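Before the break, one more example. Copy the sequence into your notebook; we will annotate it together after we see the structure.
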Amino acid sequence: MAMDLMQYKIRVNCVCPGHVLNEHMKATADILANPDREAEVLAEFSEEVQLKIKQRVEYYRSHPEQLATVMGRGFDGYPQDLANAIMFLASDDASFINGEVLVVDGGSSAGK
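Here is what the structure looks like once it is written out:
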């Protein structure tokens, strides 16, 4: 796509986010740390979101090595971190960047 659109001076890049701290991730971490509070934490969300959070909790319970990778960094990214990367790629400062994949994950995938 990047090659096809380049003739029209349209750049195509991809941003691949890592874990981003949002209300869903906060709820997941809260439930993992305090399983007895699960119903209380989930009550704040719609049924659809509750299901997604429950699935994420079960995933991390069955894949503790993944949880260690995420939590071991001691932080998640923030939505603004992704916005900054996207704004950069959309700016004139990135005018010569085309067809690239930018991983914005705080280094959690480095060396993998």
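The chain has two domains: 1-21+75-112, 22-73. The two ends are 27 Å apart (CA to CA). Try to locate both features in your own notes.
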